[in-house]
Amino acid sequence: MAEKTIKVLLVDDHQVVRRGLRTFLEVQDDIEVVGEASDGAEGVARAEELRPDVVLMDIKMPGTDGIEALRKLRELANPARVLIVTSFTEQRTVVPALRAGASGYVYKDVDPDALAGAIRSVHAGHVLLQPEVAGALLSQEGSNGGTGRGTTLTEREREVLGLIADGRSNREIARALVLSEKTVKTHVSNILMKLDLSDRTQAALWAVRHGVTG
Question: Is the pTM of this model over 0.85?
């Protein structure tokens, strides 16, 4: 059971919010809160120290905010998946966080069961995007060109890309295509390199934009 436990780090400048999130999560058998941080800089340091599987990150914090912390984690190649927990619904607030590398977002008034489900989902490699935010991201990507880059993908890479767009994890893709996870990881790396993308979120959005589905 211990091997299946998802280690979570809470990053929010409000102690009451952190306490509430911890209360939600401590009743889950497969989720363990391994630490807390009160701002982005501390969050990055704690993520490097504790190596959590998932970071619950607020966006608006004094000093280093959530978006800057996300960028720092990416620079450090920290493997933690970041789930934004925010009270802001505006696209101008959420979209930059997703572009900075977040795996998705939920609102602070989220139902406890839905929060636990979101953590499990991003830990499994899925991307959580509300339709309106996905649309905003796609419209922003539309000016970047690259419509012909997909022609450089092999048929197998297009299959993998389509499954990424469906929100499948590497393990699920491996099962669906009867491949090893190591082979899937190689395909994902090749896809990101060929399409000049930095992460699975961008790959999923590229696939949606260009009609590549699993």
Answer: no
